[in-house]
Amino acid sequence: MKRCMAFLLLLMVVAFLLSVSPPAYSTATIVDFNSRRSTPLVGQIFNVNVTVSNVMNLSSWQVVISFDNSILNCTGLSLPQDHIFSGYSVFFPQPVINNEHSTVKAFCSLDGTSSINGSGKLCTIQFQTRTLGVSSLNFVNVMMKQSDGSYLLDPDLTVIPFEATIGIVEVSASDFHQSVFDVTQNAQTYQVAISTNSTITDFHFNQTNKELGFNVTGSDGTAGACIVTIPKILLNSTLIALIDNTATRTYNNSTHTLPENETCCFIYLNYTHSERSIKILLTVQGDLNGDRKVDVKDVATVAKAFGTTPGLPRWNPLADVDDNQKIDVRDVSFVAKNFGKQLSL
Description:
The protein is mainly beta. Helices cover 11% and strands 43% of the residues. The protein has helices spanning 2-20, 296-304, 329-337; strands at residues 30-33, 37-38, 45-58, 60-66, 72-78, 90-91, 96-98, 103-110, 116-129, 133-139, 151-153, 163-164, 167-171, 177-185, 188-196, 199-206, 211-217, 223-231, 238-243, 246-252, 264-272, 276-282.
């Protein structure tokens, strides 16, 4: 009898706790960009809508989005007429656009204790492209209720779980065209796309060596460029590009210098036209010359350029590991802490 009473008491306690616990939200809620991949031209103004889908009990939201300010400038952020809180009274303070720090932040809240369910637009962001290249659009500090976080809240100020996607902006020119190449790996076929104003020949991918290569040609002395879209299953994480067997740029997702989304990474290269050979290699963090190891040569490269910015005599873009247009202690530290690493294939 005592055991039965204890069991019933336990059931009552559990029922009470469930009745006062915060609601369980579906992780199917997604905060997204209406166009996960935008392809504007240099100098063009374009809009990106931030959207939410399958949300329940939404009372307020904040998004902080980062971008590459060498490629894009944010020129505005607004609530579209058909935003998700349309028809309700809202609090929408002035958005914070900081092109110097490559971020834009917006907050919006329903007045009172109202909430909505469903899908719709949160805001519209306006960008203007600055130069050729690729920029990711990333939500900063996802689901962190803080001043620089991206979050959704219910009327009780509880964070609503959601999945955040990544946007990609590929800035090209009117004379660009796209070539698509099939790559077979482990009996699966993947596609590598190259958007360029050059003629592409001799495309190849070496699965064993983790190396992608091709030749580019164009009218001698003219400016050439290409954007290479690579499935992440082929190459990912830390890459280095060589033009005519000379390293020209490193790309690393840990320093946010490798634009990527959920499925692909994106490499941008520019050069002066003639017949040139391009290679993109998988390597290790800290490798600056493409030999797939971090040794005294890499340390010497960053040390020699230490303290420089673009235009100074010792400037070397390879040593600018985090691509912040200056070679400082962070670049030296990054190479030094990876000293001795070597790629194993």
